[in-house]
Amino acid sequence: MRITVVIPTYNEAENLPKLASALFSLPLNLRILVVDDNSPDGTGRIAEELAEKFPGRLDILHRPGKLGLRSAYLNGFQKILNSDAQAIVQMDADFSHDPSALVDMTQLLESCDVVLGSRYVQGGSVDTQWPLWRKRLSSFGNYYARSILGLPLHDVTTGYRIWRSETLKQMPFERIQSNGYIFLVEMVYLAHCLEYKIGESPIYFADRRWGKSKMSFKIQLEAAFRIWQVWWNYIDLKKAGRAGRL
Ligand SMILES: Nc1nc2c(ncn2[C@@H]2O[C@H](COP(=O)(O)OP(=O)(O)OP(=O)(O)O)[C@@H](O)[C@H]2O)c(=O)[nH]1
Ligand SMILES: [Mg+2]
Question: Is 65 helix (H, G, I), strand (E, B) or coil?
Answer without folding.
Answer: coil
